[in-house]
Design a protein that fits this description.
Layout (H helix, E strand, L loop, with lengths): L27 H7 L8 E12 L5 E14 L3 E14 L2 E14 L4 E11 L3 E9 L7 E7 L3 E5 L3 E2 L1 H13 L4 E6 L9 E7 L3 E3 L2 E12 L9 E8 L4 E7 L3 E12 L6
Parallel strand pairs: 9-10
Antiparallel strand pairs: 1-2, 1-16, 2-3, 3-4, 4-5, 5-6, 6-7, 7-8, 10-11, 11-13, 12-13, 13-14, 14-15, 15-16
Helix pairs in contact: 1-2
Length: 269
């Protein structure tokens, strides 16, 4: 999902990857204790993307596309890759986007690396890449951007990376928590860090797995904007698989429906 998720709109379409990876939401001491607690599934998931609810004033008349999410267990790290192909038609103008987003995250939650390549037509090619590490021995957490331009940024001490966020969401949902707040960095929008609030519904048991309906609201960290950049509704399973996703941009939404799920081997870890 982006098993953990992420916002950002161009004028015509959402650019946020599904790293819910998505990216998900506690103080670092708590996150470190829980980072590997949830039994997350290494898997490949395919989603069909279509137009959900829309406000006629938004002018969005059609959305078609697909999303591939792969989560690999590489023993000491998680490797996550997302491939998105999306065509959004707004006011009779179609914009096609193809992107590949890849990330590596230490299972102890200490560091994170990402690479993103996006082609938009009309438009062009955009690349971004960088890495981040949590605070250590008096040094603040750091975000190092390589592309499109090198830069260095301090990162809040309480920041989580996507898989640690996902694991913490699941652990706290199992513990009965219904409202959570996290600070998350996933690299999906350069050096931007997000405050993510999550509301969790009642869990349901099906085929031996518990799943919860959740709604996550993304605000840029430290800002006072009342409206979130995006809200994501998801049905999240205890193994970290997102069964369905809805990306709500206010004036329209995009539905991502799970159509194929395959477990991946761990490579003998």
């Amino acid at each position: 999902m982006k098993p953990c998720v992420r916002p950002a709109l161009t004028d015509a379409m959402p650019a946020r990857k599904a790293s819910f990876a998505p990216v998900l939401l506690a103080a670092f001491s708590c996150a470190a204790a829980h980072a590997g607690a949830a039994d997350l599934l290494a898997h490949r998931a395919v989603y069909e993307m279509t137009l959900g609810e829309d406000d006629s004033r938004a002018g969005v008349v059609d959305v078609r596309g697909g999303l591939l999410v792969e989560v690999e267990d590489r023993c000491e790290t998680w490797a996550v890759r997302q491939r998105l192909a999306l065509r959004v038609t707004r006011d009779a103008v179609a914009v096609a986007t193809a992107s590949t987003f890849g990330a590596f995250e230490a299972k102890d939650g200490s560091w994170y690396r990402f690479d993103d390549e996006t082609v938009t037509r009309p438009g062009g090619l955009e690349r971004s890449s960088g890495e981040a590490s949590l605070a250590d021995e008096g040094r603040p957490g750091q975000i190092l951007i390589d592309e499109p331009e090198p830069s260095r940024h301090d990162m809040p001490d309480e920041t989580l990376f996507p898989m640690a966020h996902l694991s913490d969401l699941i652990d706290r949902a199992f513990a009965g928590e219904r409202f959570m707040s996290h600070v998350v960095y996933d690299g999906a929008d350069g050096a931007t860090v997000y405050d993510i609030t999550t509301v969790v519904g009642l869990g349901e048991r099906n085929d031996g797995l518990t799943s919860w309906p959740m709604r996550l609201a993304f605000h840029e960290h430290g800002t006072s904007a009342e409206e979130p950049r995006v809200e994501i509704a998801v049905t999240l399973r205890q193994d970290g698989v997102a069964e369905d996703l809805v990306y709500d941009y206010g004036d329209f939404s995009i539905d991502a429906t799970l159509v194929e799920l395959t477990g991946l081997t761990t490579g003998g870890c």
